[in-house]
């Protein structure tokens, strides 16, 4: 039994004394201890070394006191396991020496044995579960197939992922083949995460909002739905689509336990669009953590009032930024814990 099960209760839609809180990208660069490790080990070494991944995963639990841990890893370990070379370049971010730009290149991408290629993730989960000692639940995650495709074709981060979109619209057959390979790998990968011990899963569709509603259905949602169908009976699944407010209605009928919302959609509107019954997670503007702690606390209480305390998980609308003072992240978490309806 998990001692602090607020997060799991909210995912089941149960009544809670206060909402649970965690922050997307909470295991990261705003933490001084994380920066110390970053000086010593490069990014994918940190992901591939279970002891380091465990140490980083538990940092925010001890330092800011979130109600759930999210495994330190990256969405891009999946395409790496599929045989694609991906580097993390300082000041650039994810970078591919050879982006995928043809049907031939898609054919060369493999659907791997996840236990062979990603065993280090499963080791990290087992080690982290021991370190957490059932204090709080552990979230596992994967990128959505569309978001992974964005990096594989574009070759790096982008403001509009124009090359990824161009490939989908000119070579739809190859694009769908690639999306299906990513989906099949992701389903096997996440089943392995559940076997290794994660208590919930989140699918990050960070670039879903780049697509029109019609293209979103074709190139993103269809594949996320397959992932939800395959996992929803094992653990609760959270679907987070940045900029995907237009899809909240369909997402609410998918079998996902909760939906992530970014800060461009008001809580009232998100409740309306998602039909009012499903648990929602979000949606504090990550930049608003730059406000003084007093202002943060006031705005967090307003956010909870607007979402309602039940069927709600307090979080940011996207990942925490590296320039956020730890005290401000702390104020965000404390504000949720101090909330009284
Ligand atoms: O949430 C957590 O704390 C768990 C760890 C986590 C990381 N990446 C660690 C990380 C998670 C859940 C991710 C997911 C991820 N990775 C997403 C989806 C979520 C989102 O924010 O949209 C995406 C798009 C990626 C791909 C990726 N990895 C990007 C765009 C970057 C940033 C590059 C940069 O330097 O700005 C990364 C690197 C990365 N992943 C960092 C961390 C802590 C920072 C780099 C470092 O620590 O060296």
Automatic annotation (TrEMBL):
Site (Transition state stabilizer): 74
Domain Uroporphyrinogen decarboxylase (URO-D) residues, every copy: 20-29
Protein EC: 4.1.1.37
Positions in coiled-coil regions: none
Entry's localization field: Cytoplasm
InterPro entries linked: UROD/MetE-like_sf, Uroporphyrinogen_deCO2ase_HemE, Uroporphyrinogen_deCOase
KW Lyase (keyword) present: yes
Annotated GO biological process: protoporphyrinogen IX biosynthetic process
Main localization of the protein described in the UniProt heading: cytoplasm
Catalyzed reactions: uroporphyrinogen III + 4 H(+) = coproporphyrinogen III + 4 CO2
Gene3D superfamilies per UniProt: 3.20.20.210
Pfam families recorded: URO-D
Gene Ontology cellular-component terms listed: cytosol
Pathway entry: Porphyrin-containing compound metabolism; protoporphyrin-IX biosynthesis; coproporphyrinogen-III from 5-aminolevulinate: step 4/4
Binding site residues for substrate: 25-29, 44, 74, 151, 206, 318
Record keyword Nucleotide-binding present: no
PANTHER family assigned to the protein according to its UniProt record, in alphabetical order: METHYLTETRAHYDROFOLATE:HOMOCYSTEINE METHYLTRANSFERASE RELATED (PTHR21091), UROPORPHYRINOGEN DECARBOXYLASE (PTHR21091:SF169)
Assembly: Homodimer.
Function description: Catalyzes the decarboxylation of four acetate groups of uroporphyrinogen-III to yield coproporphyrinogen-III.
Protein name: Uroporphyrinogen decarboxylase
